[in-house]
Amino acid sequence: MTAPSPTPVGDVADRASAAFRTGYGEPPAGRWAAPGRVNLIGEHTDYNDGYVLPFALPLRTVVAAAPQPGTTWTVRSELTGEPVTFGVDEVTGAGRVPGWAGYVAGVVWALRAAGHPVPGARLAVASDVPLGAGLSSSAALEAAVLAALVDLGGLDLPADAQPRLAQRAENEYVGAPTGIMDQSAVIRCRAGHALFLDCRTEAVDHIPFDLAAAGLAVLVVDSRAPHRHADGEYAARRAACERAARVLGVPALRDVGVADLAAALDRLPDDETRRRLRHVVTENQRVLDTVDLLRAGRIREIGPLLTASHTSMRDDFEITVPEVDTAVEAALAAGALGARMTGGGFGGCVLALVDAAAADSVATAVATAYAARGFAAPTHFTALPTHGTTQMQGRAPC
Ligand code: GLA
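That is the input. Now the predicted structure with alpha-D-galactopyranose docked in place:
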């Protein structure tokens, strides 16, 4: 069973219920919520079997659902009036349902491929997680749908096995070659904590991340940069890492430590591959160092690690764009303790660790720098770590 929600999720849940009732003419049997995420540190390390440290956002995707006889699935979104219906044929081969509903079909496909008797269902989706901002709106959708189907069907799939299944939906059905971070974060995070995940073993440790007690805030700025060739560039970075691992004769770049870095760099054939390796190896170490500082209660001191992560993404992994670099520079100049792009890159969001009282002035400084460069105005919010997938308590309102 999915854990009950400890906190009310509010409006978005009402919107999911309303979309269900409008679409199907009756109330849902239940509602399941999954959050967006930001990654505090550890970028492009997940598919290298390395370490990541994301936390869940208070922004949620909610799926209202009820069983439907037989093996068909119907899904509606509050954004698009039209329902999408698919049956067994569309979930025997990957990719047969296109567009946003493909994430839903992908979850059904992955469950069936793993031998689970997935119940037919009607679903309605509402979300506060912005699309295309690098906050894992797709993982949130996958996780909420997965939780709904697991609970409706009484399927035997514990929460810690769900990220791998949702990742298969995204990798194999939708066709995006992502790692395990996003699905793990949106399913396994706990309120007040960052999720320290070993992406090889999927072992997790919930690291206390009490920003308020330290007088701090994490400011999240949506760079609003158009994603430029993000899919192809992501796949190219992943391929370069896999190539480097092959040359070095290791299962994954996680197996190269900072102590081995100089020797490993010497063995690689070209400068580009060397820079990709250096990012992954140093980034893994920065995650471990960040976790050590957080465990010691030294939150303020993680700032330089965040900034070093950004520099590494900019210069070695080459996944930043002028908008995110501008946001990071402006945030640091305005007094942020550290700042970095978060997520896959080529746009998306920047996070800045700031004194809580300075959050507004840092956000204003970023907006001013944007205006000076002629970029579209950024949006921002402050984020406290919340919990992963939940089944919402109480009867869904009619
Ligand atoms: C995207 C992917 C993740 C991860 C990050 C980069 O968010 O979905 O698996 O690779 O990029 O850290």
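The chain is about 40% helix and 20% strand.
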